[in-house]
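Example S7 (structure tokens).
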């Protein structure tokens, strides 16, 4: 189904409700530059890391597209757990898993409070940016503590530049991309206003510093387009 969420005037801040959930896959593909390519990279590293009997968590799994794709490529037995706090998203995820025959443990959970088991891989696709900065580092530390030695955390985030002109140009470049995907100026403006103070991005350097402060031995960008980046952090 095509994303037309912001063709009408917004009445509240952005939330992952039923209206968003039913068009979310289209929204991602048209709103996140090279989304499929960044997901392929994420899948590659996740599959290399997972061993027989291993465990992967997807934090903010939305409609479970990533875990479904990973499940189809697995040559071993592994546990795939998707966590999200939106019932609407999880409902879409369950429908997709059933239709595609994917065995994934989908749970409604607060990723800040969840009791994680020792895992091989954590994935977070454009989720940290929705976690309040005051507790974001606390979550990343919890992820590091819950990973096995040499485990990995793969996360994608919208990023900012602290150079004011460059940051402005990056935003303009991104808006041009959205227009090429068929979004109108009005839809772009509406979504920007809905996300105000809901989505709070860090810079590339700030994300790397956060990961290292939280116990990861290494962190770097493995894919970037303008102000969108995919990171890998190694415990």
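Recovered sequence:
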């Amino acid at each position: 189904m095509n994303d037309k969420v912001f063709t009408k005037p917004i009445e509240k801040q952005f939330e992952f409700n039923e209206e968003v959930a039913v068009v979310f896959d289209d929204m991602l593909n048209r709103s996140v530059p090279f989304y499929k390519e960044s997901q392929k990279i994420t899948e590659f590293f996740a599959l290399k890391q997972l061993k027989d009997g291993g465990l992967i968590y997807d934090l903010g799994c939305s409609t479970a597209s990533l875990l479904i794709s990973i499940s189809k490529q697995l040559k071993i037995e592994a546990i795939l757990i998707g966590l999200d706090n939106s019932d609407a998203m999880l409902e879409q995820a369950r429908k997709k898993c059933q239709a595609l025959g994917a065995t994934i443990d989908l749970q409604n959970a607060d990723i800040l409070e969840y009791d994680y088991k020792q895992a091989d891989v954590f994935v977070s696709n454009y989720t940290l940016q929705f976690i309040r900065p005051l507790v974001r580092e606390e979550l990343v530390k919890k992820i590091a503590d819950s990973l096995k030695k040499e485990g990995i955390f793969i996360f994608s985030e919208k990023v900012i530049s602290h150079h004011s002109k460059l940051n402005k140009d990056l935003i303009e470049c991104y808006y041009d991309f959205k227009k090429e995907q068929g979004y109108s100026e009005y839809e772009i403006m509406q979504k920007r206003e809905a996300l105000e103070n809901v989505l709070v991005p860090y810079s590339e350097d700030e994300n790397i510093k956060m990961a290292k402060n939280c116990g990861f031995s290494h962190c770097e960008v493995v894919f970037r387009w303008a102000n969108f980046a995919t990171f890998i952090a190694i415990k």
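Notes on this example. The domain at 15-234 is CATH 3.40.50.150 (Rossmann fold).
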